[in-house]
Amino acid sequence: MAKRDYYEVLGVQKNASKDDIKKAYRKLAIQYHPDKNPGDKQAEEKFKEATEAYEILADDQKKSAYDQFGFAGVEGMSGQGDYSNVFRGFEDIFGEGGFGSIFDSFFGGGFRRSGASSGVRQGANLRYDIEIPFKDAVFGTKVEIQFSHNEACTTCKGSGTTDGSGKKTCPVCQGSGQVRHSQGFFSVATTCHNCHGDGSIIEKPCNDCGGSGTQKKRQKIMVTIPAGVENGKRVVIPRQGDVGPNGGPAGDLYVFIRIKPHEYFERQGYDLYCAVPISVSQAALGADIHVTTLDNKTIKVKVPAGIQNGKMLRLRDEGVPSGSHRGNLYIKLMVQIPEKLSRRGKELLEELARVEGQNDSPKPIPLSQLGADS
Fold first, then answer.
1. Are residues 148 and 243 in the same domain?
2. Taking Cα atoms as reference points, which of 54, 70, 67 lies closest to residue 10?
3. Residue 114 falls inside a structural domain
4. Can you tell me the distance from the alpha carbon of 333 to that of 371, in angstroms, rounded to the nearest whole number?
5. 32-46, 80-94, 165-179, 207-221: which range is least confident on average?
6. Are residues 343 and 256 in the same domain?
7. How would you class 304 by CB atoms within 10 Å of its CB: exposed for 0-12, middle for 13-18, buried for 19 or more?
């Protein structure tokens, strides 16, 4: 079944505020929560659908990508079983800690909370936008980028502690990372306010990272842009996002690609298009012309006699690479009418008109005869 538009899922407009999105999600989450609808598979799917929509629309970066590129822009950015980011956002919706262990049971343990059972959590994914020349997008390239991300603290090696002092069990939640209490239909496990869900507390936090185990660092890497990449696509660099707190694994870096327009060439799928001027005499008599392709090859092209303005000539395998094949290059011939004529040129054209005759009462040409390439 095709995925529904996230705004449609939550029942909000595209210009809805964060508060409106939050209220709409809260209403659906309460309505379709599995504890309220035991054994109801349809309610379960609606709950998951609403949660995925909220995860995207409640995050400014993900929402912007979705608004620009639709589902392709956020592919891989939704939880897909990992609702840790949403869970942390639930503190604003359902009180501190959100739904807690409800997600553990509902998503089959796929929800990675920062409790004592997991010990650590994965760091955030990051986004980086680049703009590359048209030619580099067609043939591929390598681009060096610089960005900032969280790395393990060099002082405490990611432990968050001073001199290996270690951690002790949180006295409030007794190591579970959660505090349970009932709210109406729900038995809600909220994140422990004392240990923030970790289940333990650091006795002597590291002075350099404040106990988080991470520090912000500048990173420089080379990104390989594959040949034939399209505008708006992305390249995923694994484990170059933020390192998780207290030694958690790093998230991924998503490099989104924008392509600069070319002065002479444009692209449709794997085919390239350009326009080339020819003279009236070349169009009438035919000619051999030399065309420069995008990769700077000069190719001899035969223009047939009597060709009409706007017609296309095809050069096979001179387009965009696609695996072991390439698309075609289509050349649109534009017949240039001279704005000024020499005396001799005018005499010759007048003689041509006398010899060939002129149509002084032209009838419209049927559109079917013009062709799509004219």
1. yes
2. 54
3. no
4. 14
5. 80-94
6. no
7. exposed
**Backbone conformation region of residue 110, classed left if phi is above 0, alpha if psi is from -120 to 50, else beta:** alpha
pLDDT band at 183 (very low <50, low <70, confident <90, very high): low
CATH number at residue 317: 2.60.260.20
The confidence score (pLDDT) of residue 67 equals 82
Say if residues 85 and 123 touch (Cβ distance below 8 Å): no
CA 247 to each of CA 39, 49, 163, 214: distance values in angstroms, whole numbers, following the listed order: 38, 31, 16, 8
Provide the CATH number for the domain around residue 39. 1.10.287.110
Give me the domain span that covers residue 332. 266-354
- Tens digit of pLDDT for each residue in 195-235? 877 788 888 888 888 888 889 999 999 999 999 999 999 99
Helix (H) or strand (E) holding 105: helix 101-106
- Residue 140 and residue 225 in contact, taking contact as beta carbons nearer than 8 Å: yes
What sign does the dihedral 69-93-44-12 (CA atoms) show? negative
Residue 229's identity, in one-letter code, is: V
Largest distance between two CA atoms of the chain: 106
pLDDT, tens digit, 9 for 90 and up, residues 296-353: 999 999 999 999 999 999 999 999 998 889 999 999 999 999 889 999 989 988 898 8
Question: Which positions ≥6 away from 85 have C-beta within 8 Å?
Answer: 55, 59, 79, 124
Q: Which amino acid type is present at position 238?
A: P
